[in-house]
Amino acid sequence: SLLVFDNVDSFKKLQERHWIPHDGSACHCIVTTRDTSSGHIDEQVMVGPLDQESALALTNYFLEPELGRQLLPEEEGKVLEIFQSFDFLPLAIVNFATFAKQGLD
Fold first, then answer.
1. Is the pTM of this model over 0.90?
2. How crowded is residue 9: how many other Cβ atoms within 10 Å of its Cβ?
3. What is the mean predicted confidence (pLDDT) over 38-53?
4. φ, ψ (nearest 5 deg) of residue 52
5. Which of 66, 62, 68, 65 is nearest to 79 (CA)?
6. Angstrom distance (rounded) from CA 40 to CA 97
7. Spatial distance between the Cα atoms of 71 and 59, rounded to a whole number of angstroms
8. Contact 29/21 with Cβ under 8 angstroms?
9. Which pLDDT band holds residue 49 (cuts at 50, 70, 90)?
């Protein structure tokens, strides 16, 4: 089994409520959070911000199959401004691309 907690405000609260599976259980857990005081975690993967080129490539990866095209050069500047507002974080970029598919067609 896989249990996913996305965008957790406080990892400590998850632990206090005993929502995290115990070691040795058949359930694995993925927690996404910006909380840096996460306490004991078996394995952590830190995901930092993307550079501009990677951010645009990730956006185009999600847009192209749906729209049959990538961002136009005149769209890229505005998109980069938006990405800068959320620090070029990959999850935010993927969320943006998901919603942008509807508005770029």
1. no
2. 10
3. 79
4. -60, -45
5. 62
6. 33
7. 8
8. yes
9. very high
